[in-house]
Amino acid sequence: GANGSNQMVEGMGRVSIRPNNFYTHYLFLNENNFGGIHFEQREIEDDDENEMTQLFNSGGAEDSSLIVPTVVSGWNIMQYLANDIAQDYFRTIIGRFSKDVFRKQLLIQQQAKNRMTAISPVSVAKNGDEDDSTLSPQE
Questions:
Q1: Distance from C-alpha of 67 to C-alpha of 96, rounded to nearest angstrom
Q2: Do residues 78 and 89 make contact, with C-beta atoms less than 8 angstroms apart?
Q3: One pLDDT digit (tens) per residue for the chain, 139 residues
Q4: By the 8 A CB rule, do 27 and 35 touch?
Q5: Whole-angstrom distance, CA of residue 28 vs CA of residue 110
Q6: How many CA atoms lie less than 13 Å away from 47 in the CB half-sphere?
Q7: Contact in structure between 76 and 34 (CB atoms under 8 Å)
Q8: Contact at 8 Å (CB) between 67 and 25?
Q9: How many other C-beta atoms lie within 10 A of the C-beta of residue 33?
Q10: Are residues 24 and 52 in contact, defined by beta-carbon separation less than 8 angstroms?
Q11: Cα–Cα distance between 18 and 136 in angstroms, integer?
């Protein structure tokens, strides 16, 4: 209307969200009890990280842009365990769960990728003189 400059328009506002942390295989109970695999862009610190990083970055990433999968454990509930040994054991079991499942997923993805590269269009074209009626749908 005529008074338009001083009136606020009702409706939906615009929200801009930028993630600053990326996780996978995230276990969540509440904001004080969580764990999972956190992706960080940093240098590799030990041999175990090296293996996971090489599996995750198998796409040929340069060393300067390596994403290191790191186990994060933020379990407040663990403070209620009897002693430090029980707390360390809890942290280890939860961390191994996330890490082992993530590693298995990466290995399965890598095996599937290797199988796909083993079947090339050239090898399919070379077998073109065979009778297609004897082939199963998988072949």
A1: 19
A2: no
A3: 555 555 556 777 888 888 888 888 888 999 999 999 999 988 888 888 888 888 888 765 555 578 899 999 899 999 999 999 999 999 999 999 989 999 999 999 888 888 877 665 555 555 545 555 454 444 4
A4: yes
A5: 28
A6: 0
A7: no
A8: no
A9: 14
A10: no
A11: 49
Question: What separation, in Å, do the N-terminal and C-terminal C-alpha atoms of the chain show?
Answer: 70
Residue matched to tokens 């904001």: 31
Token pair in block for residue 59: 């796409």
Can you give the pTM of this predicted structure? 0.62
Can you tell me the distance from the alpha carbon of 139 to that of 83, in angstroms, rounded to the nearest whole number? 59
d(CA 58, CA 56): 6
Tokens of 97: 């769960």
